[in-house]
Every structure is written in structure tokens, then in C-alpha cells.
Write a structure and sequence with these properties.
The protein is built from three helices and two strands, in the order E-H-E-H-H. It is α+β, with helices and mostly antiparallel strands. It has one domain.
Length: 78
């Protein structure tokens, strides 16, 4: 991304942009950046299916009830 940075007198800039009184009669730094268009509001990406390449079809049938089996083996029937 390209940007322009320049230090100028605030008197010149005040003709274009409203500046606070504390910035008047001094030098200010101006940074100009392009507007980014087509930026999606929702930038959250889904992890759904991310580990699909590691799935084992033979073990999928054993998944149902796996947590209960392991907890019972480890801690007994509490």
C-alpha cells in the first residue's frame, strides 16, 4: 500500500481541515493513505473442515459415546 507523509504548517492545512486550537500555528504531520474498498465487514474466518485431511473414516463410527467410555474407564461409574 502506498502512502504519502509530509510535514507542513498548520495554517495551510486549516484551510482544508478543521484543526484543534492546540495544533494551530505549528507544524503538523500529514499522512495520506488510500481508502480500501471492498473490505468485508465480517473478517472472521471459519475453521470448519480445517482438519478434514486427518479424518479417519474407520474411526468416525467409534466417536459416538467416546467421551463417556473413556470417562468411565478412567474414573469408573461415579
Amino acid at each position: 500500500m502506498e502512502a504519502v507523509r509530509q510535514i507542513i504548517d498548520s495554517d495551510i492545512l486549516a484551510e482544508v481541515i478543521h484543526l484543534p486550537e492546540s495544533m494551530m500555528n505549528s507544524q503538523v504531520e500529514v499522512i495520506v493513505l488510500p481508502v480500501i474498498k471492498n473490505k468485508s465487514v465480517n473478517t472472521k474466518k471459519s475453521m470448519k473442515g480445517f482438519l478434514k485431511q486427518y479424518a479417519s473414516l474407520s474411526l468416525i463410527t467409534q466417536e459416538k459415546g467416546a467421551w463417556e467410555r473413556v470417562a468411565t474407564e478412567k474414573y469408573g461409574n461415579i
